[in-house]
Design goal:
Length: about 90
């Protein structure tokens, strides 16, 4: 009986090489897809998290300032309404 068969040995080497090649192709395709996705997202008009947080804080501060100004305006209108009316005199 023959314990080694050259045909099966060669077939095993070819199959191993083919699987290694397919794995390499798969890794390259995955990396290429990842790169294209980064280019797509990078080219879009997106805002970084730190920029977003800064604008969010500015908007919150502006809203607070508007509320303070509304209160002051209401007080000034009340003061004006409480003033005695002066009659206009023509010269």
């Amino acid at each position: 009986m023959q314990t080694e068969n050259k045909l099966f040995d060669d077939f095993s080497k070819v199959a191993t090489s083919a699987l290694g090649t397919l794995a390499g192709v798969g890794r390259e395709m995955q990396e290429s897809a990842r790169l294209r996705a980064r280019e797509f997202v990078g080219g879009a008009d997106t805002v970084g998290r730190d920029e977003f947080e800064a604008v969010k804080a500015n908007a919150a501060a502006a809203r607070e300032a508007v509320e303070v100004l509304k209160v002051e305006l209401a007080e000034l209108r009340a003061q004006i309404a409480a003033m005695p009316a002066k009659k206009a005199t023509r010269v």
